[in-house]
Specification:
By secondary structure, the chain is an alpha+beta fold. Helix 5 packs antiparallel against helix 6, helix 13 packs across helix 14 and helix 16 packs across helix 18. Helices cover 53% and strands 7% of the residues.
């Protein structure tokens, strides 16, 4: 969870980029919150391996980030991350408490532990199991759209479809009983607001962990056809997965894709409505949806950056990153790098060779990426098919009323008002 809602200061300062030292701070301005891509372009040109005033490194070129994602000198280890956040101080020091308490899972370990934990999770989280969810996801999306249509001539896409969908899917996948889902939703929302109240987030994590521990105990006694039961069975076959690791793996697998999927759907829908030519292409040829979702993920990915910590001094772009320093890998900046993508600021739903980095790369490639893309395929495809008059509500059409969450590592709308 090192990339989820990392605590940073609210947007500050002016948008002026007169000096290279201003580049990192500029990403926290209201202008960059509305559209960070011109800021990334300038950083790639002027300071692609940039050290902020806080001592955090910003990488924005595709080649550098792709290499960094597979470089073991840039660590994802929980203990290193906790120390690095603590050393930065300020709000980030408080965030170090969260990294310390989450336990060791595949998202915060390095090889060889990472490979062991990932292999065990892969046995349960198979491609076949994900694809088998398609019909169920379609039923959930149809129900959510039906409810939105019955409620009136307009909807907030985030609240009506994009937010409840991944929670419903993950609860089905992991066998979370229907009566427990409202409380799980409350915990999830508190996780996603760490920067607003870290104390409430810590309390929610504690309560959620206790709930999962009870669920794991029930699955040991009475297994079902769900992922928690599959992970429990995997542990029984391979005792290298400890009870603590099993619980932490359940935690991260259930939690990690929730907001990312929500905002992949939201950002994708907004991009299509702002590019009516591409929306028309998708309406005319619904079979484009798979390549369309990859292109939409490239064009405006919810996870703008992920975090690493330097485990061993490394030189990148002629600059030396020292042990213990934090590194932000800006996936969104790489996805608009003209050295990798032709005409990168253009949305092209049939873009060839689209090797974007929206879900990472290398050993930490997002395990839930295929499930997130499947949900986006079904949700966006259904909206395009069922709502031929879909458009931005008047207050959102100009863009000024759209509120983006104040975290430069994430690109997430608070709401997306639509008419149909």
């Amino acid at each position: 969870m090192t990339s989820t809602d990392t605590t940073l200061d609210e947007a500050r300062g002016s948008a002026g980029l007169a000096r290279p030292g201003d580049l990192a701070a500029a990403l926290r301005t209201p202008e960059a919150r509305r559209d960070p891509y011109p800021f990334y372009a300038r950083m790639r040109r002027e300071s692609p391996v940039h050290r902020s005033a806080e001592g955090i490194w910003y990488l924005t070129r595709y080649a550098d980030v792709e290499a960094a994602l597979g470089d073991l000198r840039l660590s994802n280890d929980r203990d290193r991350m906790t120390r690095a956040y603590g050393a930065v101080g300020g709000d980030l020091k408080a965030f170090s408490r969260i990294t310390d308490r989450l336990g060791r899972v595949m998202t915060n370990t390095d090889p060889p532990d990472h490979a062991r934990l990932r292999k065990l999770a892969n046995r349960a989280f198979t491609a076949r199991r994900v694809e088998a969810l398609r019909d169920g996801i379609q039923r959930i999306v149809d129900r959510l759209v039906d409810e939105a249509l019955a409620a009136g001539p307009a909807m907030d896409l985030i609240e009506a479809v994009a937010s409840p969908l991944p929670l419903s899917v993950v609860c089905e996948l992991f066998g979370i009983p229907p009566e427990d889902r409202p409380q799980v939703k409350t915990w999830f929302r508190r996780f996603g607001r760490m920067s607003e109240d870290i104390g409430k987030s810590e309390a929610a994590i504690q309560q959620y962990e206790e709930y999962l521990a009870r669920l794991v105990r029930r699955r040991r006694a009475d297994p079902g056809d769900d992922l928690i039961s599959a992970l429990v069975a995997t542990q029984a076959q391979d005792d290298r997965l400890t009870d603590s690791e099993l619980l932490s793996t359940c935690f991260v697998l259930i939690t990690a894709g929730d907001e990312t999927t929500t905002h992949l759907i939201g950002n994708s829908t907004l991009a299509l409505l702002r590019h009516p030519d591409q929306l028309a292409r998708l309406r005319a040829d619904p079979t484009l949806i798979r390549t369309a979702v990859d292109e939409l993920a490239r064009y405006d990915t919810p996870t703008q950056a992920i975090v690493r910590v330097v485990a061993q001094d490394v030189e990148i772009g002629g600059r030396t990153l020292r042990e213990g320093e934090l590194v932000y890998l800006f996936l969104a900046a790489t996805n608009r790098d003209p050295e990798r993508f032709e005409d990168p600021d253009r949305l092209d739903l049939s873009r060839p060779g689209n090797r974007h980095l929206s879900f990472g790369n290398g050993p930490h490639f997002c395990l839930g990426g295929p499930l997130a893309k499947l949900q986006a395929e079904v949700a966006v495809g259904t909206l395009v098919r069922r709502l031929p008059q879909l458009g931005l509500a008047d207050e959102a059409a100009g863009g000024a009323a759209l509120e983006w969450r104040p975290n430069p590592l994430q690109r997430r709308l608070s709401a997306l008002p639509l008419t149909y």
